[in-house]
Design brief:
The protein is of the alpha/beta class and about 260 residues long. It has helices at about 10-15, 15-25, 45-50, 65-75, 110-120, 140-155, 155-160, 175-180, 200-210, 215-220, 225-240; strands spanning about 35-40, 55-60, 80-85, 95-105, 125-135, 185-200, 250-260. It has a single domain (about 10-260), classed as Rossmann fold. The protein is built from 11 helices and 7 strands. A 7-stranded mixed sheet has the order 3-2-1-4-5-7-6, sandwiched between helices. The structure holds S-adenosylmethionine.
Length: about 260
């Protein structure tokens, strides 16, 4: 099983902070609101919402990440609580939040429709949900796609669906729109943004994922040495191809933020 508390996900979370702010801006999170952060990880969106004066709740199944989120909230004295739970059965009452967000989080839930319907269930009528997902073609997407393919080849299909990067449908804005509509969301809007990742070299970026990122670490465990060496070589080819900095590594990944009203 993929364990998101394995490795050091906090490093990745730090690089996602600009996207967190973007999702909160799209959802127009402001002081006095109640905000639910689904698949909160180390608490980025919940804590950023609390910094805006909202009362925030984060939900995630990874206990180790929730502990980090709780200590971040305590350190900065922020109004945020963190609950263990799964996106398919959120441990919160019906219609209890003004805003429900998920930053590259709900896209990992095995049953996408159930998870989106849960986000809507938790949101008050007239409230807003907003979530982000990577679009095809960027560095993150292409490296994650290679990883997913390698994990899928090495594991039984059902397990690979539950353990690995999000399935490709999440890269299709039309699919996201119809998913939201199927769950009864209205006024669906899709907005696109860029996020830039940097490291001292493509090799260093891949090395960071290999050492610290829970999904790459999971891949390293399930692939044999030859398959891992192949994945590494293919990933570095892609990273060199997309590199925007001739003296180091920088790559832009495009993502979509879907916003809808319950
Ligand atoms: C890429 S991380 C994003 C974390 C956080 N939203 C952020 O911006 O840093 C994906 C998160 O999804 C969580 N996750 C995976 N499967 C989940 C599920 N079925 N229900 C809820 N969260 C899940 C993981 O534990 C992890 O924290």
């Amino acid at each position: 099983m993929l364990d998101w508390s394995d490795g050091n996900y906090a490093l990745t979370a730090a690089s996602l902070a600009p996207a967190t702010d973007q999702v909160l801006d799209v959802a127009a999170v402001s002081a006095g609101q109640s905000v639910l952060d689904v698949a909160c990880g180390t608490g980025n969106a919940a804590l950023a919402a609390a910094r805006r004066g909202a009362t925030a709740t984060g939900v995630d199944p990874a206990i180790g990440l929730l502990q980090i989120a709780r200590s971040r909230a305590a350190k900065d004295d922020l109004a945020a609580e963190f609950l263990a739970g799964d996106a398919s059965a959120l441990p919160v009452p019906e219609a209890s939040f003004d805003v429900c967000v998920s930053v590259f989080g709900v896209i990992f839930a095995p049953d996408a429709q159930r998870a989106i319907c849960e986000m809507l269930r938790a949101t008050k009528p007239g409230g807003v949900i907003a979530l982000s997902s990577w679009l095809p073609g960027g560095a993150v997407d292409r490296a994650a796609k290679l990883l997913r393919e390698a994990i899928t080849a090495a594991m039984p299909p059902t397990a690979a669906v539950e353990d690995g990067p999000p399935p490709p449908q999440w890269q299709d804005p039309d699919w996201i729109s119809s998913l939201l509509a199927r769950c009864g969301a209205r006024d669906v809007e899709l907005l696109e943004f860029d996020l830039r990742f940097a490291a001292v070299s493509p090799e260093a970026w891949f090395g960071e994922q290999e050492e610290h990122h829970p999904v790459w670490r999971f891949g390293r465990r399930v692939l044999d040495d030859d398959a891992w060496a192949d994945l590494r070589r293919q990933s570095l080819d892609v990273l060199h191809e997309v590199n925007e900095d001739s003296e180091a590594f920088a790559a832009t990944s495009r993502y979509v933020v879907a916003r809808a009203v319950r």
